Amino acid sequence: LAWSLPQEDGGAEITHYIVERRETSRLNWVIVEGECPTLSYVVTRLIKNNEYIFRVRAVNKYGPDVPVESEPIVARNSF
């Protein structure tokens, strides 16, 4: 999973990102990485052929930003 820098940093340097996933058949979001320091993350523990949506939030000293969501994707391999 990879993303770009946000257009705005909220007035402070971004310290990390929160990466979450949700199965499209469910309503709850699961944090897969709470303190990702880079613009990418290898998401594990996916179920083959399940459909997922991912979202990422930039975090600075003022707190997390509004999340950005992916389009639904189907896991092709189990990791």
Automatic annotation (TrEMBL):
Give the matching SUPFAM superfamilies.
Fibronectin type III
Supply the Gene3D superfamilies for this chain: Immunoglobulins
Residue stretches making up the Fibronectin type-III domain: 1-78
Q: Which InterPro entries match?
A: FN3_dom, FN3_sf, Ig-like_fold
Q: Does the keyword rRNA-binding apply?
A: no
Keywords annotated in UniProt: Immunoglobulin domain
The question of whether Nucleotide-binding is a record keyword is answered with no
Pfam families in alphabetical order = fn3 (PF00041)
The protein, known as: Titin
Species in which this protein is naturally found: Homo sapiens
